[in-house]
Amino acid sequence: MPQSEDPADFTGDADGFERLWTPHRMVYIQGDRPDPEGGDGCPFCAAPGKPDEEGLVVHRGEHCFVVMNLFPYNPGHVLVCPYRHVALYVDLTDDETAEFTALTKGAVRALESASAPMGFNLGMNQGAVAGAGVAAHLHQHVVPRWGGDSNFLPIVARTKAMPMLLEDVRGRLAEHWPA
Fold this sequence. Notes:
CATH topology: HIT family, subunit A
Order of helices and strands: HHHHEEEHEEHH
Helix content: 25-40%
CATH superfamily: HIT-like
Radius of gyration: 20 Å
Strand content: 5-15%
Number of strands: 5
């Protein structure tokens, strides 16, 4: 039986949506995931074992630390992580929870001092289906925002314009970390 040339025969009825197909994201979606038990495969277990500059660690606390995001949405995008390899916020101890919150506030204050953002996105994605890239190790995103910081480049060119190197941002945030 000959195949139809009409695209509607293959895609169904048109629904009015334009679609941007991103099959390159499947590498990320189906990629290797850190060992649920932690260890060398987990970037958040590995970072604290390196010097701050190499591990991109901005600040270390007793129970938690702050690290630069390797795939930032904006310059200064940091992650607050417990040292302990734990997946869920509800599984943090009371001491970990208190420091997790304090370091999130510290990250906001350091970013305000270092780069004067106009706003912030704060959030946790728990579980792979919720968008967590490293679902096995809890982390909270602190993303500074400025008016006009989003543009067409990520969509059209699969490119994000970043005006500062991660190492430079890490140094600046460490310098501006609240006492």
